[in-house]
Amino acid sequence: MADRVATYSICACDLVAGQWGVATQSKFLAVGSVVPWAEPHVGAIATQSYANPRYGPDGLALLRDGLSADDVVERLTAADENRAQRQLGVVDGAGLAATFTGEACHAWAGGRTGDGYAAQGNILVSAATVDALAESFEASAGKALAERLLDCLDAAEAAGGDSRGRQSAALLVVERGGGYAGLSDSLVDLRVDDAEDPLAELRRIHRLHHDLFGRTPRDEWLPVDAELRAELDGLLAGAGHDSLASWAGVENLEERVEGEDAIDPVVLARLRESS
């Protein structure tokens, strides 16, 4: 039998934004390599406890075929002779949710569902951890899905978390064409495989991810007038570059650069900081 993935997780969606995601934390090495699965307009899945990794791809295939979250949970667990030790959360393409906790999962274990989310955990300090996941998500409507999921993890940890402690965490959010260069569906795919405070580290790399790959609305970009143009030329020359695009390519900020007539404030701040 494989090691149990004792953890807490939340699967969720933002139907307006067209995003589905999973966030998880565990006293388990590289939890992000096992628990989270998602596909745009199809759904999101978390598989844990004595995790069956096939629940991820097989469950997404069933969702793709039009089965509801409840039907997917029923189909996956009915075919699994070790279902008593499994835990599973599913949110489908319509935002319907289901969660499953086998009777042999180690206490405390259980789950909650609500509009657009499924929250679950095992070997937890108490039910308060799952309640915190659910309540945080319900109270955060209007924020970006990735931020909501990170807030859920923080709330769950504050409520007790995994009774064995902390080791790894992961955040996965998908959106059709929302990833790098518009050619990937992975809007956010971040993992902390082994850390003393995995949630703090996950927050840190999410901020870095946002700085590099996030989007500032175009109407918030700064027009490059003569004064700013002179400053930019001086900063770029000092950095050994003859164009903003050249500098941005080295700094991995090319997704935030488009033309020379206006500049993303994030790019300008980073250029000034690097001088």
Strand content: 15-25%
Shape call: elongated
Order of helices and strands: EEEEHHEEEEHHEEHEHHEH
Q: Label the CATH architecture of the largest domain.
A: 4-Layer Sandwich
Taking Cα atoms only, what radius of gyration do you get, to the nearest Å?
21 Å
The profile of the biggest β sheet is: 6 strands, antiparallel
Unreliable runs, pLDDT <50, ≥5 residues?
none
Give the CATH H-level superfamily of the largest domain.
Aminohydrolase, N-terminal nucleophile (Ntn) domain
Put simply, the count of helices is: 8
- The CATH topology of the largest domain: Glutamine Phosphoribosylpyrophosphate, subunit 1, domain 1
Helix residue percentage: 25-40%
Q: What is the CATH class name of the largest domain? A: Alpha Beta
Main traits of this protein?
six-stranded antiparallel β-sheet; 25% strand; elongated; 12 strands; alpha+beta; 275 residues
Give a structural overview.
It is a single chain. The chain contains eight helices and twelve strands. Helix content is 34%, strand content 25%. It folds into two domains: 7-213, Aminohydrolase, N-terminal nucleophile (Ntn) domain (Glutamine Phosphoribosylpyrophosphate, subunit 1, domain 1), CATH 3.60.20; 218-274, no CATH class. Helix 3 (128-139) packs antiparallel against helix 4. It has helices at 55-64, 69-78, 128-139, 145-158, 198-213, 226-238, 244-251, 265-274; strands spanning 7-14, 19-26, 36-39, 43-49, 86-92, 97-101, 110-114, 117-121, 168-175, 186-192, 222-223, 262-263. The chain starts with 6 loop residues before the first strand and ends with a helix. It is elongated and about 70 Å long. The protein has 275 residues and is an alpha+beta fold. The longest helix has 16 residues, at 198-213.
